[in-house]
Fold these 2 entries.
Entry 1:
Amino acid sequence: MSTPQPPIALYIHLPFCLARCPYCDFVVYAGGDARGPQARTERLYEAVGRELELRADALDHRFGRPDADDLRTGAPVDRRVPLRSVYFGGGTPSLVPGEWLERLVAIVRSRYGIAPDAEVTLEANPGPGERGDAAAFRRAGVTRISFGAQSMDAAELRRLGRRHSPEEVAASMAAARAAGVASINLDLLYDVPGQSVAAWEATIRAALALGPDHLSLYALTLDDPDAEGITGKDGDHLPTPPGARRWRERARVEQDDDRAADQYRLATDLLSAEGWRGYEISNWARPGHESRHNLVYWERGSYEAVGPGAHAFDGTARRWNAAAMEPYVAALMPIDGRRALPPGGREEISAETATAERMILALRLDGGVPATWAEVGPASGVFSWARSLGLVEPIDLDGEPRLRLTTRGRLLSNELFERLL
Ligand code: SF4
């Protein structure tokens, strides 16, 4: 039976974007909420700072303070380990002014502790009005920037409703490098309406020519959070606007599973030939640039999270904040001064679900699972089925026999994962 663990990573959701892309299901507030006289940015940043403090109070109570030294002996007692990763996601966190970023990082440093070699990631958009000031981000402690490039084809970017050009991706990367950012990721999308396999190859090659350290390659997913019932009062998603719903209906008919599989295989072969490691189903890195933050998720580590719609995990339960901004701000910045944690939900994870989750998350990684996990219990039948179809293969990792997904297994991973749950 697992016990709750103090967080080793922290996610901070900053939900503002200049405009909302029609395929996006992240918790985003755009347009007048993000800029201009009615912008709600300052109040939200203030509220996020207060949530950081309140969550830290609760962690101090449960696990001890990160800086609690024994005053008599000088020996550390009740010390929480400092964070190994801090991740500013969104939204477009690069819209945050440098001074606000410094204030938030200062709260994290004093209340959570940040390890000297920690990864501090900021998501950014490449457009000139969105990329922010890389030098200011660097001064605040950012070590890694993840750019939402999505494509290196101008027409494709327009079709996706994006506001930047391929040249601006290059300019943003150059600015980040000049500021001394050590690790840069580019997000790219395949299975985009109208995107041929050749166009996808051209995007990957153009991205590689810019010299990134990490690539996240995602199939465009067009979900319906309203139909999934996750947009209610305490839901962690916002309702899909009618225009975005119409865009998705048109786009869905132009998607093609077979073409997407060809695009995935092409990316796998091309990146492997270039010496990249596909260390997770959707993520490739040059050696030493694997995302330490996402590895905490995949290795089922404990993480804290703040901001509207953010999810946290303590090893035994998942907790989330509701996506709606008004109740979030109202709880943390009340008129009567009696601040409280924002509304949201919580789910205890049963032992059976925890076992399945551990297996599924490990299978996402290129190290796979110990072969012994496939020999006992209900999972043994699933693994026999997966082996017979060539979805998993045996490997030897430092002398330990393990099973990992083949490329075919990665393509059909959802079918395998559903059987393990
Ligand atoms: S910029 Fe990113 S977070 Fe913002 S709406 Fe577009 S996809 Fe979503």
Note: The first helix runs from residue 41 to 63.
Entry 2:
Amino acid sequence: MKPIRLSILTLASLAIGLVVRGVVSRTVRAGELAGVRKPDPTAIERGRRALTLEGFLKADWSESVYAKAARFWDQPAPDPERDPTGYAARFRERYGLHPAPFPNDGLPMGLRLGRGPDGGKKGLQIDCMVCHGGSIGGQSYVGLGNSQLDLKALLFDLTHAMGRRPPFSTFVINSARGTNNAGQIAAALLSLRNPDLSVRSFPLPLGANLPELDTPAWWHLKRKKTMYYDGRTDARSVRTNMQFLLGEKSLDQLKALEPAFRDVQAYILSLEPPRYPFPIDAARRDRGLAVFTKHCVRCHGTYGPQGEYPNQIIPLDVIGTDPARLHGLSDRLVAHYNATWFGEVSQVDSVPTGYQAPPLDGVWATAPYLHNGSVPTLHALLDSKTRPARFTRPPSTSFEHYDARQVGWKYTELSPDQVAQSRKRSPFQAGFIVDTGRQGMANSGHRFGDRLTEAERLDLIEYLKSL
Ligand code: HEC
Ligand code: HEC
């Protein structure tokens, strides 16, 4: 089979995606999904190597685009030859990437060298960590969702630097920094395959219309029975993580890579959240635990060595957060996924219910909050009338931009006029503005903190820092 280069997406290169979420495995065959919760250390190590040192995709851009990208910036850049360190820092800043905490040829986490577009020569490719690698307070972490990423700018600039025109994209890749539309990318890739995964020339009309999303932290996966924001996929599914390979791999190649993805999953299950680095007031934390027990445990579970996670999927009319992610996953897309090799072992649940209440381990480090990243701090999440309708994202994840009282990133609330002016002045700066009026970006719902007193709320936040 001759793999196609996707051009209906922006993202030929972007064979990322993965994501057609689904769930509950009505067709789980005993044995096949079993045993991954406590992976063996050699599998973890193989998975770490495969994910961080090797990569899976052919390179789509030539190596030289890294230095050429600066041509498309509206600010002067250090010379990549004379000042490679300065250039690397500016490159990361520009696209919201982070230093790699593993050997990566001087490239930021999420970009890697691989075999080039013209066969043997080296070239550049993105990998899982472009979205699933983040930093906070100057430390990079594999598995922390990248809340700074400007995926569209990265893909478009690298493609332009190749002298190519990015293909027309029929959907929003990201309207601001941090969110990305991994779901619609995966849906687009799958629509170009028949049920036997042979390549189609014209996409199947699957009707999916997914919105941009905040990338979830990987360290939650080990607590989950079901995964993705809607909890419709068995958390043990390995094949679901391989959807991004659909940009170039045949069914036989996918089958051959499944063991490596089993190892990658083992590595993901071994990840732990970073600890809160500032002082925590023990008395307030203990009072906060009582508030948490009364108001939050039934959905979010308990923490510590005996912690139990109830894996609750909360109906949309109860949770009240933005419905676009839930409704955007069409029945036809789910049926198509389930009819392919991806659905053979574990099927995506055909019934949409609501959103899964996530575990809150490491929640201090994962702002902005909710599945669409529409709320900048824990304090705003727990007092819904104070949530800003339009707010700025920080220029970096350095602690100077971190708000340890509200817990999350410092922000400025903007008026519609200020947003319009900023868009006119510089599209680059406008990328730092989250507008919750956009499709899929509503900051509604989850009003479980509204009736707390301010003292209870602050105690609760102190407790959340300790998770
Ligand atoms: C373009 C950004 C992007 C890339 C690249 C990406 N992901 Fe994701 N990933 C996401 C987003 C966004 C979600 C949430 C999707 C949802 O629930 O709708 C997600 C969800 C997940 C989840 C489920 C987490 C949970 O707790 O529910 C896993 C596991 C995962 N991705 C693994 C991977 C692997 C492995 C790769 C590389 C092969 C990868 N991802 C590449 C953006 C990305
Ligand atoms: C009825 C169930 C329910 C209750 C009660 C509840 N939550 Fe949630 N919570 C959810 C669901 C569902 C989500 C995901 C919603 C979404 O992303 O659209 C969520 C999301 C969150 C998030 C965002 C996590 C992230 O990484 O974006 C935080 C923080 C949170 N809840 C804290 C709390 C606290 C603190 C309480 C107690 C005051 C609480 N919740 C009570 C169901 C609940």
Note: The CA atoms of residues 320 and 445 lie 4 Å apart.
